[in-house]
Specification:
seven-stranded antiparallel sheet; Jelly Rolls; four-stranded antiparallel sheet
């Protein structure tokens, strides 16, 4: 069963937030993404063990698996494409290391491109922009020492103004995640499910209404639940994915602790007795 939030599979937040700025935000984001440096994300969900077994084939080629199988010559190509090749580990230690996002050995964008083009690694989100960077997943709710990047401040001012208007006590993470036409977001979860654990507080908003089709997946029944709304909250320890569509689409996720008054309104929306 889905863990959900406050007894619901997900919560649509459209009626709790002022979304009038989203049309302008959408115009800005489309121009900004054309100018901003972006990266890839999500190319190793199977190796990370965060996919339901029956859907692991949807990850296609996984970069962690590819790197572990590289011969010496191909590993040296990978090493040469690192941001700092001299500091990239040698082939002998590769089997004992984890590569990529939030792992011991991060990958450069050049390395990701080579893994995609040479070995067919599938990166679901090929447009990934961190407006507030976050080094470790578990630190996403902590705002201490973090700020919007200078690039974000220069290219995303309306977006930042909207994000700052959201009902967070502090913001620990903010990113744009885009999928190219015909790509699907692999079904995965962002943590181990625990019914006793409160869902992580965050808001996802999709300025282009209806274009990104997120769904939740119940591995027990294999049922899919479509997530609606331009702004929503779901439990990211539930399996979730994005349906393929023949056009580019994106969303923006903001993490941080909710204001107490907003949490009270969420409980009212969900019909939870206080």
């Amino acid at each position: 069963m889905l863990l959900g939030v406050l007894g619901k599979p997900f919560l649509v937040l459209d009626d709790l937030l002022d979304l009038r700025a989203l049309d302008d935000v959408h115009e800005e984001v489309c121009v900004a993404l054309a100018a901003a440096p972006t990266g890839y994300t999500g190319g190793s969900h199977r190796a990370m063990g965060i996919m339901p077994p029956e859907r692991e084939a949807e990850a296609l080629s996984d970069y962690q698996e590819v790197i572990r199988g590289l011969d010496d010559a191909h590993f040296e190509v990978l090493r040469s494409l690192a941001d700092q090749p001299a500091r990239f580990p040698g082939r002998a230690s590769a089997a004992d290391l984890e590569f990529g996002e939030e792992r011991a050995v991060p990958l450069s964008h050049r390395q990701m491109l080579w893994l995609k083009m040479r070995f067919g690694v599938y990166f679901p989100w090929k447009v990934y922009a961190e407006l507030i960077p976050n080094e470790r997943w578990e630190d996403k709710g902590n705002a201490r020492g973090k700020r919007f990047t200078r690039t974000a401040e220069a290219l995303f001012p309306r977006t930042i103004a909207f994000v700052k208007s959201l009902p967070f006590r502090a913001i620990g993470r903010c990113n744009v995640m885009g999928l190219e036409a015909h790509d699907h977001g692999t079904v995965h979860r962002d943590g181990d499910p625990d019914p006793e654990r409160r869902p992580d507080p965050f808001i996802t908003f999709a300025p282009a209404a209806g274009r990104k089709r997120l769904f939740l997946y119940d591995a027990a029944s294999r049922a899919e639940t479509d997530v609606s709304g331009r702004a929503y909250w779901f439990n990211d320890h539930d399996y979730h994915g994005v349906r393929a569509d023949p056009f580019f689409r994106y969303s923006i996720r903001v993490d941080g602790p909710f204001e107490a008054s907003f949490l009270s309104r969420l409980n009212e929306l969900a019909g939870v007795a206080r």
